[in-house]
What we know:
Elements: H1 4-10, H2 16-21, H3 23-39, H4 42-61, H5 67-99
Helix pairs in contact: 3-4, 3-5, 4-5
Amino acid sequence: MSIYPILFSSTQLLFSNFIHDFNFIFIIAILSLVGSIILRSKKVIITQLVLFISIFILDKFAENILLIPLAIIQLSFGVFILFRLKKAIDRNYLLVMEKTHQLPRNVNSNSSNGSQSSFL
Length: 120
């Protein structure tokens, strides 16, 4: 007799309901959290963490009717992060083109080197 089937059958994952019901929203939330870390904006990272944690808290203690507005907010926030990532990638491409003298100086005019602390 093994103890492992008893242990695995008695444990329940903490966030399993949300992951099974809203797996697409969960993936979007993780990707937008990673995107906000890449964009290096503290406000966006904190906002994303609050949204991410509040969805899990509401999954345990509230009804599903409150999860739908949070899921819509999470999706819109993910789309916002996606557009900002595209804008940051385009800006980086323009900087590379300017520094290799393939485009005239526009982004790093006035003796700036084109560095930026946050992309939001």
